[in-house]
Amino acid sequence: MKQVLSFDQTKHLQELGLYHIYTLQDILDKLPRYINDFGTKYKLHIEPTFAGPWCISYQIGICEPFVFKLAENLLDAAYDMLCWCIENGYVKVGKEE
C-alpha cells in the first residue's frame, strides 16, 4: 500500500498553498468532515467499492454523492479529494487558513 505522496503530488499541494502534507493521516486531517453547499450539508464518506478502487465522497446518506473521487489506493483518492476541496474553496489555504 502506498504510504506517502509522490514528489509531484507534494509539489502540486505546495502550489495550491499547503505544506507538510505527506501521509494519508495528514490529508484526512485537512479534509472537512462536512461540506455545506447552499444550505445542504454533505458528509464525508470513505469506502471501498465492489470493483476494487477506493471511493471518497461527500453525500447525504445513501443518496447520489455531491462529489466523489476514485483511485486504486486510498491515499490517491484522498489526495484527489483534497485538491478538489482546495480548488473549490472548501479548504482554506495560506493566508485564508
The parts where pLDDT drops under 50 for at least 5 residues are none
Radius of gyration: 13 Å
Strand content: 15-25%
Distance between the termini: 31 Å
Helicity range: 25-40%
Mean pLDDT comes to: 91
Number of helices: 3
Main beta sheet strand tally, sense and closure? 4 strands, antiparallel
Report the structural category: alpha+beta
Record field, number of beta strands? 4
Q: Give the strand order, joined by hyphens, for the main sheet.
A: 1-2-3-4
Shape estimate: flat
Order of helices and strands: HHEEEEH
Give your account of this protein's structure.
- A hairpin with a 2-residue loop joins strand 1 (34-37) and strand 2 (40-48).
- The chain is built from 3 helices and 4 strands, in the order ααββββα.
- It has a 4-stranded antiparallel sheet, with helices on one face.
- It starts with 6 loop residues before the first helix and ends in a 10-residue tail after the last helix.
- It has 97 residues and is α+β, with helices and mostly antiparallel strands.
